[in-house]
Amino acid sequence: MKKTILLLLSTLVMGCSGPTEPPPTSIQPIDSAKVQAAKMNLQTDAELAPCNIQVSAHNNMLVLKGGVPSQAGKDRAETLVRKVEGIKNVANHLEVELNTAQTPL
Questions:
Q1: pLDDT of amino acid 10
Q2: Where do the structural domains in the chain lie, given as residue ranges?
Q3: Which of 22, 26, 37, 61 could tie 84 with a disulfide, CB 3.0–4.6 Å?
Q4: CATH architecture classification, 28-98
Q5: What pTM was estimated for this model as a whole?
Q6: What is the Cβ-side half-sphere exposure of residue 53, based on CA atoms within 13 angstroms?
Q7: Is 18 left (phi over 0), alpha (psi -120 to 50) or beta?
Q8: Per-residue pLDDT tens for 38-83?
């Protein structure tokens, strides 16, 4: 009986040791060259260039922050950065900022 218990315990301990190395990750981080290419795409657009959109990368996600003059500009910014090869995930945190000086009273 003691041998059976010892055998069972040793099997449990050996089986619970787990892997020695972490599993490989499938996240491919965005490199700085792709971030720069995305910024260049935005800086060459007549409507978006003056907006000073912030572009950063977090793991495999390109992040856009700042303000744009219209929803069309927000959508176009995302389209422009997705044209960069390797950019698949975009977090578009751009805010549409209505210019009150142009709003009719």
A1: 65
A2: 28-98
A3: 37
A4: 2-Layer Sandwich (3.30)
A5: 0.69
A6: 37
A7: left
A8: 999 999 999 999 999 999 999 899 999 999 999 999 999 999 999 9
Condensed to tens digits (0 to 9), the pLDDT of residues 45-57 reads 999 999 999 999 9
DSSP 8-state code for residue 101: G
CA distance 87 to 59: 11
Q: Which residue has the tokens 């000073």?
A: 52
Cα–Cα distance for residue pair 85/101, rounded to 1 Å:
39
Tell me how far CA of residue 6 lies from CA of 9, 14, 32, 90, in angstroms.
Answer: 5, 12, 56, 55
Give residues with Cβ within 8 angstroms of 43, minimum separation 6.
49
